[in-house]
TrEMBL record:
One MF term in the entry's GO annotations: O-acetyl-ADP-ribose deacetylase activity
PROSITE patterns found in the cross-reference section: MACRO
Domain annotation Macro: ranges: 1-171
Superkingdom as given in the UniProt entry: Bacteria
Protein name listed in UniProt: O-acetyl-ADP-ribose deacetylase
Organism: Dyella soli
Length: 171
């Protein structure tokens, strides 16, 4: 059971699974989602399209997680999770964000995956305040690791600022 922080390109990490900060359609987008889809190649989009919709144009509701192969990525799998859009914190955003991290670890454990790398979910276009997101993610991951202690987590920051916030939350 461990959590470490790295500054890296998530799509280059050779782990069992990387976590994708996806949207509800799972059909690609901008930011981390777009980078993962580009790096994995067109088979990832086909695999996402094959996942069942649970509502019109929704394959993965906010706070839940789904899994696909990693295709051209060094990671064997991609766990897709949909973080909340920040609306000031009054629409259950902290609970939904925590659920993204916990559910991703649960999906990994169900598939016997032990090394996971996470981006800063909801911290890009979804506007979640970075310091708050760092705290929520670390608390949720520590809870998840109590249930799944064989899992090793890498928090993958795209820049030194987010890495610093995660390190402070871990301290």
């Amino acid at each position: 059971m461990s959590i470490d922080v790295q500054i890296a390109d998530l799509t280059t990490l050779a782990v069992d699974a990387i976590v994708n900060a996806a949207n509800v359609t799972l059909l690609g987008g901008g930011g981390v989602d777009g980078a993962i889809h580009r790096a994995a190649g067109p088979d990832l989009l086909a695999a996402c399209r094959a996942l069942p919709e649970v509502a019109p144009r929704v394959r993965c509701p906010t706070g839940e997680a789904r899994i696909t192969p990693g295709f051209r990525l060094p990671a064997r799998f991609v766990i897709h999770t949909v973080g909340p859009v920040w609306n000031g914190g009054s629409q259950d955003e902290p609970a939904l964000l925590a659920s993204c991290y916990r559910r991703s670890v649960e999906v990994a454990a169900r598939h016997d995956l032990h090394t996971l790398a996470f981006p800063a979910i909801s911290c890009g276009i979804y506007g979640y305040p970075l310091e708050d997101a760092a705290q929520v993610s670390v608390i949720a991951l520590r809870e998840a690791l109590r249930l799944h202690p064989a899992t090793s987590i890498t928090l993958c920051a795209f820049n030194p600022g987010m890495a610093s916030l995660w390190r402070a939350a871990l301290a």
